[in-house]
Structures are given as C-alpha cells and as structure tokens.
Design a protein that fits this description.
Blueprint (H helix, E strand, L loop, with lengths): L1 H9 L6 H18 L10 H13 L10 E5 L7 H7 L4 E6 L2 H14 L4 E5 L5 H6 L4 E7 L4 H8 L3 E12 L8 H7 L1 E10 L6 E9 L1
Parallel strand pairs: 1-2, 1-4, 2-3, 4-5
Antiparallel strand pairs: 5-7, 6-7
Length: 212
C-alpha cells in the first residue's frame, strides 16, 4: 500500500484508516473476482497498486470537488472508484457493457459503503440513453477504452457546457492524430500531461478537453 499512500500524500490528501481499508478490500475483491471473470490480467498486489490505482489517481487534479463524474467503459472500476475513495464529494456513475463487471463494481461499492456511486449496464453510444442524459455531466472520463477519437464522440453528448472530457492514454497514443475530431466537436484543449509510474512501470498521458 506504500505507493498509494505516498502518491495520495503528494496530492495534498491525508492518508486515513478508511482509505487503507477501502483500497485493501478493493484489491482483495479484484483478485478474488478475477479468478471467475475477466477483470484484469494483473495479479500482483504491487502492480495493481501502481498500474491501476496510482495511475487512476493521476486524474484527480482535473476533477473538481463535488463533480458529477461519468466513467465510460469502467471495466473493473478504474479510474472512478479510486477517485471516489479519495474524494468522497464526487457523484459517480459508471457505464459498462459487461453485466458481470457491473455486478463486481456494485459489489465493491456496497462493501465500501460508497454514497452517490453506481455502475449501470449501459453503452455510451446508446442514442436514447445519451438523449436522456444530455449535458447533465460535469466530467466524462475514460481509461483504456476505445480510441481517443471514438471516446471524444461518445462522451461529448453527456457533458455540460464548460464541462470536461478526460481521456487517460497509453504511452504510444498520440492526441495529435485526433485534432480533426476535437475541431469538429468544438472542444478546447486544456491540458496534456505526461507522467511516469513508480518503479519504472510505464509512461502514461492524460488529455483534458473542455466543451465550449
């Protein structure tokens, strides 16, 4: 848990017993459920802490307190569950196309007693759903889901004016390839941050855009 604790401290948050309990349960349940369903290929605790949790928490500086956050393609709950564990003021909805993964996320939410947090079995591309939820969300976020261009198009309908779309990229994904999509949607570049994970576990990027 050292890497998570140190990174949370670097963000200006106090490490609490409740955070330690929450992350311990999350990691334990992730490993247990992964034996039955495909949640992650990573089995080692240290790698889970760094490649999943610390990586997810890099987005927290771009998600204001009290935000209504939508996680598209939430998978096993990354990045939104780590963000919620650290910043409880967030209101979180996670969209996931796999019913088994939705069941896992909601199981963890119940164990951790997280309020204003749920996963639903839903595709972001669903026109009826996007119409109902049109421009209701402060921040849409995604990690390792679709291509950046596809993700921007999926997230765009949900975001309020002046809201944010955050895409967490791998080392070899280049936002420059998707400038036409940004222009087409009328999005504004806010930040592009590159960072290294601890223990030489990889290079990552976060791309933050604003809906004008």
């Amino acid at each position: 848990m050292r890497h998570i604790k140190e990174f949370i401290g670097s963000l200006g948050y106090d490490w609490t017993a409740e955070m330690e309990r929450a992350f311990s349960i999350y990691i334990s349940e992730l490993k247990k459920w992964t034996k039955k369903i495909n949640l992650t290929s990573i089995k080692d605790d240290r790698e889970i802490e760094i490649k999943h949790i610390v990586d997810s928490l890099h987005a927290i500086k771009y998600v204001p307190r009290g935000t209504f956050l939508m996680d598209i393609g939430a998978g096993a709950g990354f990045p939104s569950l780590p963000l919620k564990i650290v910043e409880d003021s967030l209101r979180v909805v996670m969209l996931e196309s796999s019913e088994k993964r939705v069941a896992f996320i909601n199981h963890v939410v119940r164990l951790l007693l997280l309020k204003n947090t749920k996963a639903i079995h839903q595709r972001a591309e669903d026109k009826n759903f996007s119409e109902v939820m049109k421009e209701t969300v402060d921040v849409v976020i995604g990690r390792a889901v679709a291509s950046p261009g596809e993700f921007l198009k999926m997230g765009y309908p949900y975001v309020k004016k002046k809201g944010r779309i955050i895409y967490m990229l791998g080392k070899n994904q280049n936002p420059e390839s998707f400038r036409e999509t940004v222009k087409e949607l009328g999005l504004k570049d806010k930040f592009l941050e590159s960072y290294s994970l601890p223990d030489n576990m990889g290079e990552r990027k976060i791309w933050v855009l604003e809906k004008e």
